[in-house]
UniProtKB/TrEMBL annotation:
Domain of life the protein comes from: Eukaryota
Protein name in UniProt: Uncharacterized protein LOC104738818 isoform X2
Record field: compositional bias (Basic and acidic residues): 229-238
Chain segments carrying region Disordered: 217-238
UniProt cross-references to Pfam families, sorted A to Z: PhzC-PhzF
Presence of the UniProt keyword Isomerase in the record: yes
Keyword Ligase: no
Keyword field: Isomerase
Family: Belongs to the PhzF family.
PANTHER family to which the protein is assigned, alphabetical: PHENAZINE BIOSYNTHESIS PROTEIN, PHENAZINE BIOSYNTHESIS-LIKE DOMAIN-CONTAINING PROTEIN
NCBIfam families with a match to the protein in the record: PhzF_family
Length: 256
């Protein structure tokens, strides 16, 4: 540890899971103005953790009368900083709410994608005799629009190889990523993608989705150039992650 630097406190949180060692892990690290680190150090720590996301929380001084506490939030994969990460934001909010670090039902995160909001939603459970009531977390994320692209035969062939021959019914794009729609939710669940082919696709990440039960979509997410593999998540209401919807309700993450 460098001389004069305080130790960095952190927690490992499994998002989208009801028990430890499942779901999608994120390292939630705490910084402050007296313990700032440069970007190279942040990336080195994320590389050493070597899990899908390492995020860094720094409290932001709020003006008297501000509605909610606010933290600066940054996300790093083992190889790069990314603009947005759902499960690591969920993990950060869970830590803040469950440890009593904030005295509020809502917290704001200042990020590269703008201000994100997390709200604690208490669950009604008369049978729950635990001292601490259970809760879910609702995340308010920015809408990321999708658009049609006239991909050439070579690109379509590459997508097909990446999906290991699964039937593709539509392909849409965002500024950086590709959204692949398969024929059924069963196809998404059973998909055995070729990750080496995904890394060759003209995108930073690839989302795979299909219509499931009414009001839900099945989704799996793969990252290539940003250093992630597959990120796990629950079926999300109304649409796919930030693509095409404003509000996202996610299940409680649990600490290891």
């Amino acid at each position: 540890m460098a001389a004069g630097k305080k130790r960095v406190k952190y927690l490992i949180v499994d998002a989208f899971a009801e028990s430890a060692f499942k779901g999608n892990p994120a390292a939630v690290c705490f910084l402050d103005d007296d313990n700032e680190r440069d970007d190279s150090w942040l990336q080195s720590l994320a590389t050493e953790f070597n899990i899908s996301e390492t995020c860094f929380l720094t409290p932001v001084t709020t003006v008297s009368g501000d509605a909610f506490p606010r933290f600066r939030l940054r996300w790093f994969t083992p190889v790069a900083e990314v603009d947005l990460c759902g499960h690591a934001t969920l993990a950060s909010a869970h830590v803040l709410f469950s440890t009593g670090l904030i005295d509020s039902e809502t917290v704001e995160f200042a990020t590269r994608s703008g201000i994100l909001t997390a709200t604690k939603q208490l669950k009604d459970d008369d049978d729950d005799e635990e001292e601490s009531p259970t809760f879910s977390i609702e995340l308010d994320f920015p809408v990321v629009p999708t658009f049609q692209v006239n991909y050439g035969d070579d690109d379509l062939s590459l997508f097909s190889k990446a999906m290991n021959g699964a039937t593709i019914v539509d392909v849409k794009a965002t500024e950086k990523d590709i959204l692949v729609v398969l024929s059924s939710w069963e196809s998404v669940v059973e998909l055995q993608p070729r990750l080496d082919e995904i890394s060759k696709c003209p995108c930073e990440g690839m989302m795979v989705t299909a219509a499931a039960s009414p009001g839900f979509k099945e989704r799996r997410n793969y990252e290539g150039s940003s250093g992630q593999r597959e990120t796990e998540g629950s079926a999300e209401r109304q649409s796919n992650h930030c693509y095409g919807r404003l509000r996202l309700s996610l299940n409680l993450a649990k600490n290891k």
